[in-house]
Design goal:
Elements: E1 7-14, E2 17-24, E3 27-31, H1 46-69, E4 73-83, E5 92-102, H2 107-120, H3 122-129
Antiparallel strand pairs: 1-2, 2-3, 4-5
Helix pairs in contact: 1-2
């Protein structure tokens, strides 16, 4: 039985400073997120982070599954793309392409690995299921004098 791992992220932004932390279970680390030239917000937008999540998930899962199969992957590259319309519209046409360089192994074996990873990649499967996203709390602090 596989135990569930709680994964989370915290993002704090103020003028000229972004602080991003991510965690998987008890393992936590910071992520560099540069500010916009205006000093407010992230230079990287949510759609770009979404594409990065797809790409990073696939890369990590390729290495995990390759190790299980005794395949040596030398280089794995993933390009993920999404189309966004107007404000509030969801992404359309999420897609990705992969290029892999493997050690001494037949091309068909690597192709089987890569298509298997497409079926088991957790971020991909989450998006394919259209999981609900719920706002659970809003807290307001004001610096306006009372």
């Amino acid at each position: 039985m596989v135990l569930a791992v709680k994964i989370g992220a915290h993002f704090q932004s103020e003028f000229a400073l972004n602080k991003a932390r991510v965690a998987s279970g008890e393992i936590e680390h910071g992520v560099d997120v540069p500010c916009k030239p205006t000093g407010f917000g992230s230079e990287t937008n949510g759609g770009e982070f979404l594409c990065l999540a797809l790409a990073a998930c696939y890369v990590n899962d390729v290495y995990r599954e390759a190790e299980r199969r005794g395949i040596r992957i030398e280089v794995i590259q993933v390009w993920a793309e999404a189309e966004f319309g107007g404000e509030g519209e969801p992404a359309k046409h999420l897609s990705y392409r992969v290029r892999a360089t493997a050690g001494e192994v037949e091309e068909g074996t690597v192709r089987d690995l890569l298509t298997h990873v497409d079926r088991v990649a957790e971020i991909h499967n989450t998006l394919r299921m259209a999981v609900a996203v719920t706002l659970t709390s809003v807290e307001i602090r004001t610096v306006w004098p009372l």
